[in-house]
Design goal:
Blueprint: E1 4-8, H1 13-24, E2 28-33, H2 41-47, H3 49-52, E3 57-61, H4 67-77, E4 81-84, H5 91-96, H6 98-118, E5 123-129, H7 153-171, E6 176-182, E7 185-186, H8 195-205, E8 208-212, E9 218-219, E10 222-223, H9 224-237, E11 245-250, E12 256-257, H10 258-269, E13 274-278, H11 293-299, H12 307-321, H13 325-329
Parallel strand pairs: 1-2, 1-4, 2-3, 4-5, 5-6, 6-11, 7-10, 8-13
Antiparallel strand pairs: 9-12
Helix pairs in contact: 4-6, 6-7, 8-10, 8-12, 10-12
């Protein structure tokens, strides 16, 4: 059954994949993106290049903090569901700009929820982050954890955005809202600042790789294809009449240390990593690991791409793209 769907952050890594998946199943999509300069605009425009030739896709260049603009865009489009992926991303950059992150990630979420309500849209899926668990939670992380000790402004804003979603659902009984805690998503189109993309670029160039800490920190790396399966499952879940606000982990339910990740990238690239060893960074959590039993039961979530295979797929994509003008421009952050 095709629907009218709004996707915020539509030109980003995850948002652009969501747009493609929705168009592939026949939906009509309004994408919203402000092309924030955190990384190069042409990279994001390349992400939606294929979608833009589809007559069922429209891109609006706007900021989610623009209350009047969001009300106008959603009011005119009248979506049946809103998928909210726009955010200021990155743990370490948030330490330098906590107010900016709060403005976009918390106030922006409130603006989108209210614009959706005024447009008559009751169903919303919002992207949260595994970073909300901080270092105090016991792995594997469960959704019923209090998650009240974030270790970065980014994590705090993502947890606050979840609470904004909770209050929205409490105020408006017709609302059906899901927050998805995403665990270290990677794959084709991954942001150039994130470890797998950054390490691949540097290793293939023969440049030193920044290696923070002793290599024992671990992450639950989750391939973009698996994440899409969970997102589409959440879309279907919002049809439940009993739903108010629910939180789901979307991860791979396995962990890979930083040292193990470097080894996997060496195998996939055929290049030896030159490690630039540096102290552990403020704001980084020591470990993430998702309990996905709830998502399995209620979203039909079945991740299937192990990190070794996902890394190989990413490196293959990067090598293919590196021969194009777009990819040559994709390698840096402003």
């Amino acid at each position: 059954m095709s629907e009218r769907v709004v996707v915020t952050g539509a030109a980003g890594f995850i948002g652009s994949h969501v747009v493609d998946a929705l168009l592939a199943r026949g939906d009509t999509v309004l994408g919203i993106d402000n092309f924030d300069p955190f990384y190069r605009e042409e990279v994001k425009r390349a992400n939606v290049e294929a979608a833009l030739v589809n007559p069922r896709f429209t891109l609006v260049e706007a900021d989610i903090r623009d209350d009047a603009g969001m009300r106008r865009a959603l009011g005119e489009f009248r979506p049946e569901i809103v998928l909210h992926f726009a955010a200021k991303a990155g743990v370490r950059p948030s330490i330098a700009d906590p107010a900016g992150y709060a403005d976009v990630n918390v106030r922006g979420t409130a603006v989108i929820l209210e614009a959706a309500r005024q447009a008559g849209t009751t169903r919303v899926v919002a992207a949260s982050s595994s970073s909300v668990y901080g270092n105090s939670s016991q792995p594997p992380f469960r959704e019923d954890d209090a998650a009240v000790q974030p270790v970065s402004p980014y994590a705090a804003t993502k947890r606050a955005a979840e609470l904004v979603c909770e209050s929205h659902a409490q105020l408006y009984p017709e609302a059906r809202v899901i927050s998805l805690r995403l665990f270290t998503v990677y794959g084709p189109r991954q942001r150039p600042d994130l470890a797998i993309h950054k390490f691949t670029r540097l290793m293939l160039a023969g440049s030193p790789v920044p290696f923070f800490g002793d290599g024992s920190d671990s992450r639950d790396y989750t391939f973009i294809g698996d994440i899409l399966q969970g997102i589409l499952g959440a879309v279907e879940r919002t049809r439940s009449v009993s739903l108010r606000h629910e939180i789901f982990n979307l991860g791979e339910s396995a962990t890979t240390t930083l040292s193990e990740l470097v080894t996997l990238l060496e195998q996939a690239t055929g290049c030896r990593a030159i490690l630039d060893r540096q102290p552990a960074q403020l704001g980084d959590v020591r470990r993430t690991c998702a309990d996905i039993s709830r998502a399995r039961a209620l979203l039909g979530y079945r991740p299937g791409v192990a990190v070794a295979e996902g890394v190989r797929q990413f490196v293959s994509w990067y090598r293919a793209m590196n021969g194009t003008d777009v990819a040559r421009r994709a390698s840096g952050i402003r």
